[in-house]
Each structure stands twice: as structure tokens, then as C-alpha cells.
Q: What sequence folds into this?
């Protein structure tokens, strides 16, 4: 099966916490990877998301360790929306 990974950057203007995180993360820009697999449907091609990961720490922060934490894309969207609604 063919797979691909797309990488985006999301920006949080205030600290945030996603389900499964041990502690809130500081505001900043974060890399997010989304893994998708190819679905062949008759005469079309489509991609189905099979995983998503956020890279910690934030891009601007220098840390001794870096990690990729699995996340639910729906949780990420909800937290981003909440962040954008804050004054």
C-alpha cells in the first residue's frame, strides 16, 4: 500500500494541552506530521489519514530531547479553534 506523510506547522498563541499530554505546552509554532494511505476507488484516488503526530518541543525552543507524540487530528482542530477564539 502506498503511504505519504504531509508536514504542516500550527501556531498556538497561548499555552495548550491535548489529550494524552502530561502537561500544557507553551505557545509557539509546532510541526505536525500526518500519515495517509492511498485508497483506490474505481476510477479515483483518495487518501485516508492513518496517523498524526505533533513534534515537541515547539520549533523556536531548544530542547535536549525531541519527541513525536501521536495525536487525534480532531482534538488538534478543537484546541486550535479554541486558541484562535481567545482574545
A:
Amino acid at each position: 500500500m502506498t503511504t505519504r506523510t504531509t508536514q504542516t506547522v500550527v501556531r498556538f498563541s497561548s499555552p495548550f494541552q491535548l489529550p494524552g499530554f502530561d502537561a500544557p505546552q507553551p505557545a509557539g509554532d509546532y510541526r505536525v506530521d500526518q500519515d495517509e494511505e492511498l485508497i483506490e476507488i474505481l476510477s479515483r484516488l483518495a487518501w485516508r489519514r492513518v496517523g498524526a503526530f505533533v513534534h515537541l518541543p515547539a520549533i523556536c525552543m531548544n530542547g535536549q530531547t525531541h519527541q513525536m507524540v501521536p495525536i487525534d487530528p480532531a482534538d488538534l482542530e478543537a484546541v486550535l479553534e479554541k486558541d484562535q477564539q481567545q482574545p
